[in-house]
Amino acid sequence: MIFTNRHLKYGLRIVALTGLALSYIIGSLSANAQERPYPNKLARMVTSLGVGSGADSMTRVVAEQLTRRLNQSFIVDARPGVAGNIAAEFVAKAPPDGYTLFMSSLAANAINASYFKTLNYDLRKDFVPISKFAHIANGLFVGPGMQANTLADLTALAKASPGKYSCASSGAGGLLHMTCEMYKKVAGIDLLHVPYKSSVIFLPELTVGSITMVLDNIPLYVPLVKAGKMKALAVTTTARSPVLPDVPTAIESGFQMDARGLFGLLAPAGTPPQIVQLLNREVVAILSEKDLRDKLLQQGIEVESSTPDALREMINQEIVKWAQVVKDAGVRAE
Q1: pLDDT for 187-196, tens place per residue?
Q2: Spatial distance between the Cα atoms of 172 and 168, rounded to a whole number of angstroms
Q3: I want to staple 66 with a disulfide (CB 3.0 to 4.6 A). Which of 74, 115, 238, 281 is the partner?
């Protein structure tokens, strides 16, 4: 067969039409992929939580379960620093599309609203709540040699010697520091605040009595209390902790204190309601799984999901509560 120019032109035309058809098909597939319901690409849960902490482990478990349930990758993006403000500001300025979420240490971020003179985000206005994750009781811990076995005992000693006894924290303005300030106010005592960079540093000094006390999330201390290496005088929650059932609440002991680690999932303001509803539904389902709840409870983490509105109310309550503590203490960031 002899190919003429006519045949060549016809063949080129077929090739061109085929290319156009392929381009149309590829473009349609790409458009369809983009139009698929959320989520259709990797999502990140930004957090300021310490890597390896109980709350960090909980976040990673939830991210893994969201990945499994929604058939799309959810990863944990740790951005610690400046009392959690780095992570919060990053998410506040992210696109409100559901792909950048904020796993908030709610009490810490609520304290920041009053402790810092200026912030580049507003916890109320720049975020939309999704669901509460859990709470962790705070406890008042002293070394085994401390001559106090109850919160009343410790308070009496502190009143008898103002400024003699010390309270450790992992940084000025954080939850540990502000819980110490709360105790000082309700008990009418004077304590020396001693800030450290982390609990890893002050824990040995607390054990031997160089530092008097700490008011901290309980998971780190539960094994030490059970081994007799630390004494727990109270938990600062409205109910006793299931993992320290013999330790009374501060309220039972006559001291009106409610301070705990609170954790919840937020998204940037403007995130579509259907995405918020989907994430709330999935998180509630994940946190309802008995095996997960039991495993976390063994670490002192009490799992509790919520509606977005309930989480919003909790945030408002925390901001108001800690604003009063910061005011009473007369402390602000430099």
Answers
A1: 999 999 999 9
A2: 10
A3: 74
